[in-house]
Specification:
Residues 14-137 form the Activator of Hsp90 ATPase homologue 1/2-like C-terminal domain. By secondary structure, the chain is α+β, with helices and mostly antiparallel strands. It is built from three helices and seven strands. The protein has helices spanning 17-25, 27-33, 118-138; strands at residues 7-13, 40-47, 54-61, 67-78, 82-87, 92-99, 104-110.
Amino acid sequence: MEQLSPITIKTEVKASPERVWEVWNNPKHIIKWNSASPDWHTTKAESDLRAGGSFKSRMEAKDGSMGFDFSGIYSEVKAPERLKYKLDDGRKVSVNFEATKAGVRITETFDPETVNPIELQRDGWQAILDNFKAYIEQN
């Protein structure tokens, strides 16, 4: 199987590093921002935020036509700077939170899967990151 290059997405949010960390990792917030489009939502989220701890979010189409679990195990948890985890399918993800004068720059790098086009994956993950930015800056 061909090894695909990791995909990187970014955004910058106007919030403190501590607030960004809280909203990114707390299930009560995750269910409010974790979707790639308005016709999807996260119905359930859980997180044991520690190295070796697990997480799981249930993402579903609002019309009930489909859904899936997004889950894995944290390999590194360094608040409020970095998260690394491995998805249940073996792909690796890292999220860096860098304090800036204006707030926090979030850089997320993930191994793509082999089913969907790279552009679709990048755009979907970026849409979720954009929803996070909108949510944290409005709340």
